[in-house]
Protein: Argininosuccinate synthase
Organism: Thermasporomyces composti
Amino acid sequence: MTERVVLAYSGGLDTSVAIGWIADQTGAEVIACAVDVGQGGEDLETIRKRALACGAVEAVVVDAKDEFAEDYCMPALAANALYMDRYPLVSALSRPLIVKHLVATAKEHGASVVAHGCTGKGNDQVRFEVGVGALAPDLKVLAPVRDFAWTREKAIAYAEEHGLPIDVTKKSPFSIDQNVWGRAIETGFLEDLWNAPTEEIYSYTQDPSVPREPDEVIVTFERGRPVKIDGHPVTPLQAIQQLNRRAGAQGVGRLDMVEDRLVGIKSREVYEAPGAIALITAHQELENVTVERDLARFKRQVEQRWAELVYDGLWYSPLKRALDSFITTSQEHVTGDIRMVLHGGRAVVTGRRSESSLYDFNLATYDEGDAFDQSLARGFVELWGLPSKIAAKRDLRA
Amino acid sequence: MTERVVLAYSGGLDTSVAIGWIADQTGAEVIACAVDVGQGGEDLETIRKRALACGAVEAVVVDAKDEFAEDYCMPALAANALYMDRYPLVSALSRPLIVKHLVATAKEHGASVVAHGCTGKGNDQVRFEVGVGALAPDLKVLAPVRDFAWTREKAIAYAEEHGLPIDVTKKSPFSIDQNVWGRAIETGFLEDLWNAPTEEIYSYTQDPSVPREPDEVIVTFERGRPVKIDGHPVTPLQAIQQLNRRAGAQGVGRLDMVEDRLVGIKSREVYEAPGAIALITAHQELENVTVERDLARFKRQVEQRWAELVYDGLWYSPLKRALDSFITTSQEHVTGDIRMVLHGGRAVVTGRRSESSLYDFNLATYDEGDAFDQSLARGFVELWGLPSKIAAKRDLRA
Amino acid sequence: MTERVVLAYSGGLDTSVAIGWIADQTGAEVIACAVDVGQGGEDLETIRKRALACGAVEAVVVDAKDEFAEDYCMPALAANALYMDRYPLVSALSRPLIVKHLVATAKEHGASVVAHGCTGKGNDQVRFEVGVGALAPDLKVLAPVRDFAWTREKAIAYAEEHGLPIDVTKKSPFSIDQNVWGRAIETGFLEDLWNAPTEEIYSYTQDPSVPREPDEVIVTFERGRPVKIDGHPVTPLQAIQQLNRRAGAQGVGRLDMVEDRLVGIKSREVYEAPGAIALITAHQELENVTVERDLARFKRQVEQRWAELVYDGLWYSPLKRALDSFITTSQEHVTGDIRMVLHGGRAVVTGRRSESSLYDFNLATYDEGDAFDQSLARGFVELWGLPSKIAAKRDLRA
Amino acid sequence: MTERVVLAYSGGLDTSVAIGWIADQTGAEVIACAVDVGQGGEDLETIRKRALACGAVEAVVVDAKDEFAEDYCMPALAANALYMDRYPLVSALSRPLIVKHLVATAKEHGASVVAHGCTGKGNDQVRFEVGVGALAPDLKVLAPVRDFAWTREKAIAYAEEHGLPIDVTKKSPFSIDQNVWGRAIETGFLEDLWNAPTEEIYSYTQDPSVPREPDEVIVTFERGRPVKIDGHPVTPLQAIQQLNRRAGAQGVGRLDMVEDRLVGIKSREVYEAPGAIALITAHQELENVTVERDLARFKRQVEQRWAELVYDGLWYSPLKRALDSFITTSQEHVTGDIRMVLHGGRAVVTGRRSESSLYDFNLATYDEGDAFDQSLARGFVELWGLPSKIAAKRDLRA
């Protein structure tokens, strides 16, 4: 039986060319698989037809936007996942979902190989291949761009030679990846760390320095997930999309940073993630109100490890599952309303209220009604500082 | 010999009244000690005279602004110290310095007791008393406000009765603490978590939503410390002060959060720390460029613990010293320039350059000159994912 | 209605006297509650009758040995819980269970106060009171030994004066606490750190230096819990008891250490916990075989925090619940057999076998059948070391 | 000029053959470099002559035993370095030292390549190559066994064909690596996890189950380093060697475990490290006496990371340097005596005394002289448990 290869297909030049090229080189039948995670652009049907026109024996297209929001963005929100305290893991979140559909397609269509178009110096190759290894350890992986040193020039020549229905003239000076959780821009003049980003590289966000009216929004969470915006019920996808629009219109969520890639190099990355940043900002403050101190302190370590793991391609790892159990338990009481003002590039929390609040007005107030027994403090302070005091007696003697 | 008490003196109503009150209650001589950490307000000489007029046998005033910037703010900057990822430890940093001068004053003037005016439900009592215990374990501590349940009403009555030279009519609805690293505002209507802060509570920062021209600044760091601003040499104190002015004028550094106090309750706090936030923002990005990945990842845990320790009053603890050793070593190469735009409440890094950079253009670029050997990636990815893959074989079987 | 106090009752002198004393001092009715966690000694009925004879209006006795093993010791085993890497949390585990029964008794009998006999410098007062606060925040706590400075002398006098049916002559020179998970011995000549423990202080373990025949045992685990010993099904309680006997007979599980108490002091503690140490030893090695590397590495941090939390009296805390979720997930595949030799004070693992093993003979062997593709290593090593190499180029230049 | 290769030379079959083979294959001149880290066996002069006889143009031999003990074993002791809580990093510690001498030899003799004989599935290839990359990023690395798929059979054939002065008949069924810090045994029948080790695989330790007289020893530490044994001054090397002898004679320090290799597989390893285990046991307990609680708790995390880093080949990494700074500071007061009994495979601490002790008899004792103010406890306990209590009120309501 002819071997079959499932190719992660975007509809763009590189992966369109890859269909025929893989077939030529390996004699295999190629099945294109395109997954919509909210990257926008062409509709799935157009992409499906192009894949077939380029020689795919099958073309599978999946609208996975809700699944992505539910099963990938919501856990990231619960983890306040910010790699290096900044990057909300835009691409890193979509890869495991795409892998899941590639593997399902391979099983359904009897393929033994999965192919992707990543280069050999980025993080995405790791996320694809480690993901495939974890979901279907018996599938082989083909990475033609990396392992056969493809170039854009070769791809254009191939496309023209074979008359592929793909526009070879459009070429962004940047490498861009986007989905509903955000948008990543790299390469081009950004490779010089002293160059500031220019306004035209952004697409999800407006210029935050342009004066405009602020936008006030109330996000309601249940167990760490947004369930209402301004009182209207929303799905996770709707919550992200609405906040992408509203926070994006105020220039919220632009990031510009030097980042540590898993393959050992530093790279310059620019992101825009208005919905993600607005939601994480709100979620963190609701946790401040509803999560007990020791749990909150330890959760920061869990959050950091979670973000590193996912960045490093280990979504489908045993540690990730155990961290998720911790996080799920931590979200039990993260329920309530956060009011934010979106304006001038900032998402600023201005109010919080929650039935699950651990803020106790009567213990906190310095006003009438103060219920805090200050006489307890002396003993507390004395024993809290006792180890330091005993050490000081020793150290001052020395 | 008459017992002597060193009182942490601010010049305000409560501690002015405390001078006489302590003398009355204990028969001790009171020595007032006022430390300038950049809190502004009256000059030290005025404060000194008032202490004497209120009955102090000695009044010691110390301009500790440079010491505070050098020895307390700079380590906090190296640690990117943000308690709960937000609060730059404004009050928590000044307390150990004030304690240091109280203890020195006690030694110089033969006092056996140190007194402070903190209440029993805040963090500062802990910082004062644990600090005293660590620097001078034999000194006793007196906390009249906490242990004798003082009230403002009693203080006013006492001041009027004794004709103390202090204005008893001024009363902020808020509790405020400020120094060169920032300003803290609490109580009043802020005790209702749903109330937004109003513009008049701020003093270090302008309204970020007012349109104005952006301000671009270049901060030069050496081993993690700011040494130049726009090319002009600065001391740590000058760096903070200049950025307080420039970042404050753009509304940078306002924070509004619910915070976990050491005494076990949650409280609402508003801060403004324009210089601190601008410096930390710049410093973090310079670290992204100059600090190796594994070191950067572990340093985040060290930073969190450092901030918790200092917040929790353990500045003079053995763990703090060991964490400082780690951090000092980590700053060895944190040298270079960061360009930022201050505008609309945001401090945005737009450029970085460093002789110590670990960013290697030739390894990072996707352009000509790419020196990264992509053939290495396949083996890396395979072994990186091997534990997940082996686990997957087991788990899928189950 | 007369107030009612539930007293944690042991049957010994101090708590027998406390019954009448509390009644005298407070006018309340005292309900004695004794919980059997495997401490041995008198039977529950004898204890119950003594409580009534001493003046209790009710005496509740609970055989909680199985509950203790199931719900307290098994989670500790899953966590490999060793405070300071040594102490298996003997007393720290039983306190929350006792608290649970005190609270239940208080609810059932309409009591508004819980009383315990702990001193003010140990850990147990914290475990009792924090536990009560977490299970029944409205109950008050009475700690007569601590808050009214009781002494043994006063207790004896009271007992003799009131003719209480309790032997006042027996007096161990040590303070001892024991349950099925182990036994703690402190005070007496052990307070001198240079004194070695003597043989007569031990009760669960034989002298390990006496020559005797080794004992080989096979423990079978399912999801981290012992389910069979030498092929015979056991409950958790039976597993601990059988290993207490067999490992104890070989002198396994003696510990002698200086320990950091929560109240800020160091103390000398001697423990014997033959079953606990044997089980933890076996469990750790089974985890080595069945738990993936990254999960195992992070779990060590979780284990340390878990042990600290439980030691520090925070069994019923939100963080503890979240850590338990992590641990439960981590145990999913900790299933298999561990063969150990118990001998001469050592529990030595000599064999492991598991259907869930992640050890892959074909990948590990250097013999025929080696399936490891060594050609992958070069790329892995190169990229693994790349951050160090790039840093070295910078550092060597400097 | 002819290229020169520095080969890590052991004197054994594989590396003796490698001399000629590398010369043949690459046309380079081979310089053999043998480093004595206490592995025993032939003397350095014999090894040096064999290298020359096998065709090396130079043969450099280095007695690095003291350097190894001072600069590699002592930091490991300060870190209580036990990978996976068990393995004292025997081989992992020697590799960076050997690399240091290889690199120095390469510089001295103008070599541009370093060669080692490691396979592609172990950890040592990583330690060699990452180490070389960190000390001399411009040197190339050659790994003939891994990259050219050498086998023992080919090596024997080559040796016989070329008449090399090396005995090809001796063949251990095990793979062994040893140095003064310990000895590692793997492969052979140990690859079956159910097989127990047999007595003949051990060399540093006697059978612990044979009855013999106990041996009592007093180790004196200064700042975490052993400086005297039974009152007699020792160098670090002497301390390790003497305890290897004395603890080894009592069967102390045998380990048998399944271990997570960096390359992603699990392997079975048996170790014996009598001196290392005895020293770490003593050092840990001296830390219990002299290190403050919070520092001790955080140091455990540092220790774990330190052991992982060194195991993973990152001795010369920026993070390692920063962790060392932390650890050095932590050892400031780790000074004093530990008395241990070595017997029956166990090193048991029986006494500790230190001028730097933080154990305060007067605070700890329950006897006369008790200086602990128990009245402080109530307030401490109440505020310590307040977050749990507030959370409980919320959770019980839900």
Notes: The interface with chain D takes residues 260, 263-265, 291-292, 294-295, 298-299, 301, 305, 309, 314, 317-319, 321-330, 383-387, 390 of chain B (CB under 8 Å). The first helix of chain B runs from residue 13 to 26. Chain B has a mean pLDDT of 95. The domain at 361-397 of chain B is CATH 1.20.5.470 (Single alpha-helices involved in coiled-coils or other helix-helix interfaces).
